[in-house]
Amino acid sequence: MEKADHLSMKDEPEVQGEPTKTAVHLSTKDRPKVPGEPTKTGTSMVDTAAAAVQSFAPLNQIHQHLCAFHFYAYDMTRQVEAHHFCSHINEDMRQCLIYDGPDPNARLIGLEYMVTEKLFMTLPDDEKKLWHTHEWEVKGGFLFMPGVPEVMQRQDLEKVAKTYGKVFHFWQVELGHELPIGLPNLMMAVTRDGQLYPEMIKETEKQFGISIEKERESRAYMKGPEHGIHPLANGGGKGLKLELREVDIKPVESVPRVFV
Amino acid sequence: MASSGDEDQVPPGDPVTVSTLVIDAGTKIMQRRLPVKQMNTHVSTFAIYGGDMSRQIETHHYIHRVNDEFLQCAVFASDHSDAPLIGIEYVISDRLYENLPQDEQKLWHSHAYEVKSGSWAYPRLPEVVASPELKNIAKTYGKFWCTWQIDRGDKLPMGAPELMMSPQGVGQGVLRPELVKRRDEKYNISTDELKQRRAEIAEPEWINPMADYWKQHGKCFVLDIVTVEMNRNEKFP
Q1: Separation in Å, CA of A230 to nearest CA in chain B
Q2: Which of A105, B9, B92, B109 has the greatest CB tally within 10 Å of its CB?
Q3: pLDDT digits over A6-39, tens only?
């Protein structure tokens, strides 16, 4: 693969919301550095004390690291390697924090909710289009759990293949943003071959020592949602974008208040 | 649960099965989950919906300090193990904030009042230990996107994210006393007492008027989901 296909983030011009014509994605080496002074000893001591005495029940539930790829719901050509750290809130729903890498100082760039088909079907039609399918992400071999034997991964991914996901990203790291500026973006995931950049996939395979092609064969037996992929999911095939609107705030007198 | 006091199950769904528990236990051992382990501070505070400032919620921030001027937080509705993940907040220093474009500055809220009034609290952490950090936080700005509106009864995350505002001492920013009282009882703290003890924390010399945009301008922001032509290099889906 020719290196020329990669955009060095330093050279990438600021894209102001317009769809881009060239490939936009990141290799891990190019990720922007967050500006700011290094943590002072005084503040790190507060962190240490807090970590010792506070409780972290919601975080302790985060049991799983999934790696996959997302692209923008209005621009497939902007693609991001997404590291999901997930907890089961119950058997029918997972919630995941999304980082741009597996390392300790990875940026928290978004979140994803994953629900079973059963729950997805209860959503209003307008809501369904915001959710994407996981069938091809799993069956195609693109979604994997770093460090977990494939046989064990498959036991869980059989379930994931039938689910729907809703992802928002708040930080456009692939544009080189050093800070999380701009609006949230709804994201989608791979539904067929030819969508993801081959050089991006190759790099991920190399970094995590996996073979998507090989794993695809092992997952051929898996099935997607029982009722098939819902036609309204995946944006209903349309691009979706979030736009900011200014609204008047209600005068305080109209706000119901209970004074004790 | 957040602020509704609703005992209904959020979200709906079956209890986690044994086979799932076994897989989860296995991956938890085998996978390092390094970024998640960096979240080592729990903050209890409150937030207000930009789209409807009559709606106020209790929030639980789990904070990862990336450096002295930038924090990234996972925000949950409670501190229980099955707490819904309701959003993400970023916190930056006043220095980084001043360098942002003006249109971006409008999306951020100030933290001075939240700290000084005692809303921003560290459960179980002695106030004297938290004190140096409180001085830092008072000067920061936050940008909080809420993705699951449990207080309005959403069983599942619905719609677009909401931009959240911080509590303030005036107008729509004033917190409902019963919301604060419930939090205080849970953690056996007194917001009023924290407020008095924090009187000595200096007010920032300057809070940028672009922050807390609603205070100066009487306007807030909401997100609309619009259908557009998708820029694509292959068919979708």
Answers
A1: 11
A2: B109
A3: 333 333 334 344 444 466 776 545 677 889 888 8
